Amino acid sequence: MIDVLLGLQWGDEGKGKIVDVLAPQYQVVARFQGGPNAGHTLEFNGLKHVLHQIPSGIFRNDILNIIGNGVVLDPIVFKKEIDGLAKFNLALTANLQISRKASIIIPTHRLLDAAYEQAKGDSKIGSTLRGIGPTYQDKVARQGLRVGDILSPNFQEKYNKLVAIHKVILDQNNFDHASVLPQAETEFFGAVEFMKQFQLNDSEYAVNEAIQSGKKVLAEGAQGSLLDIDFGSYPFVTSSSTMTAGACTGLGVAPGQIGEVYGIFKAYCTRVGSGPFPTELLDETGEQMRQEGREFGSTTGRPRRCGWLDLPALKYAIMINGVTQLVMMKVDVLNIFDEIKVCTHYELPNGDMTEKMPYDLCDTPVKPVYQSFAGWKTDLTDIRSFADVPPELATYVYFLEDTLGLPINFISTSPDREAIIHRQAVIA
Ligand code: GDP
Ligand code: IMO
Ligand code: MG
Questions:
Q1: N or C: which end of the chain has fewer CB within 10 A?
Q2: Ligand 1 pocket residue status of 298, Cβ below 6 Å
Q3: 350 CB neighbour count, 10 Å cutoff
């Protein structure tokens, strides 16, 4: 079986931390989509480390980490990540495999990302500008480069062909490439050579053979369900399938092999970039959340937009992913509030109430309808057992479990690996 761990909101839920926490139970951790737009933060032994493309199982011994075929991989970022891990003395070439079918981000993909955003003006997506959209575009257009291509004798030729296509588009958009491309290309080809020391394989065999031999595999999602290319707040989404189904196509595993689906959510909501966010707080409370939660992007450093927990959105994400258990993150950030609000419904412009995600959320603003809870106003740092949580927090947790119909089996109370309350909740 393969378990899937993914974000149920707009990304940055704390997936990296939970993969790291659960990793000792697994023999394989595999990323199935996204690329360097992701920033997954791990904290342990007083150290903080952000991973972008390398799976979050890398710090645990004897775990095979796989970058699957659904990923778009930037060799330049990959080399930097590997260099950044040097001080940890990890067995990287032994413990890391990359699918030959993963797509490659080339320097012009990043320029195209910037050119497209520039052309969109006020309606820009707020992309991380890591070249994600253009690389997936080339994959679907059947003209992209894949990791396996770097071993081909005519890689340079294939690369030149793609760059020629990109240059036409950049020129059409009056986007300067001549001044930056030569240096980026030198770095790119250096990084491509560097990548050759790693195991480049058909990772669908590695994953399926691991499953067949009884090993436990964890699929690590990037971004979040509300950024999914099909079900997110289109067009303000990323370009991959961020949901459970994406683990099947992004690793080559059959749907029947999926076991547990861990749905990770913050006790409130954040979003980076543009797009609808019904519970967004543009007031002092939102600012307090941002400061208390240190809500600044792990990849771009941009301030994250903050707001109360959105249950219609969460229920939707649970439904499309087949989530089997929930993990609630950053509960400690709410310690400071006297009152904690949760959006239970949306009020539509015509006055109707709904618990469903409206199709036209981008064009039609909805009004969140809130239920209030008393804050717990207690430091949770040293609490490791659910029996010790303040009664107000327990009430909040029971309400969510009841409404969502799923157990919240993990509650995270600080960035550190050790700060986790683990329980086996039973839902009536
Ligand atoms: P990911 O992209 O889902 O892996 O999440 P990010 O790493 O981008 O963002 C989550 C941020 O919250 C990181 O800075 C984590 O160190 C931090 N974090 C994770 N869990 C907790 C928690 O329970 N409490 C607090 N205060 N911070 C947390
Ligand atoms: P992790 O894995 C939060 C957002 C961007 C932008 C939109 C499209 O760390 O949770 P893209 O660069 O993919 O074309 O950007 O998606 N976005 C993320 N937001 N966390 C992420 O990853 C994100 N990856 C992309 O801010 O709004
Ligand atoms: Mg992140």
A1: C
A2: yes
A3: 6
Residues in contact with ligand 2 by the CB-under-6-Å rule are: 7, 10-12, 34, 37-40, 125-128, 130, 132-133, 222-224, 227, 238, 272-273, 298
Please give the C-alpha separations between residue 216 and each of 63, 89, 259, 260, 295, in angstroms, as whole numbers.
10, 25, 10, 11, 33
Alpha helices in 2-106 (DSSP H): 15-22, 75-85, 92-95
| Burial group, residue 338, by CB count within 10 angstroms (0-12, 13-18, 19+) | exposed
Catalytic residue, chosen from 3, 20, 40, 49, is 40
Residue nearest to atom 25 of ligand 2 (CA): 37
In the chain, what percentage of residues exceed pLDDT 70?
Answer: 100
Tell me if residue 426 falls in helix, strand or coil.
coil
Whose tokens are 């309808």? That residue is 369
259 DSSP assignment: E
d(CA 173, CA 295): 34
108's tokens: 């012009």
First to last CA, the chain: 26
Does 345 qualify as catalytic in the annotation? Answer: no
Tens digit of each residue's pLDDT (9 = 90 or more) over 223-238: 999 999 999 999 999 9
pTM score: 0.97
SS3 6: strand
Among 133, 131, 138, 140, residue whose Cα is nearest residue 109? 131
DSSP per residue over 102-161, as a string?
SEE--HHHHHHHHHHHHHHGGG-----SSSHHHHHHHHHTT---BGGGGGSTTHHHHHHH
Distances (CA, A) of 129 to 54, 104, 116: 19, 15, 10
Tell me, yes or no, if 228 is annotated catalytic. Answer: no
Decide if pLDDT at 427 tops 80: no
- Say whether pLDDT at 161 is over 90: yes
Task: Quote the CA–CA distance of 6 and 260 in Å, as a whole number.
Answer: 11
DSSP class of residue 226? Answer: G
Query: Is the CB of residue 15 below 6 angstroms from any atom belonging to ligand 1?
Result: yes
Condensed to tens digits (0 to 9), the pLDDT of residues 259-287 reads 999 999 999 999 999 999 999 999 999 99
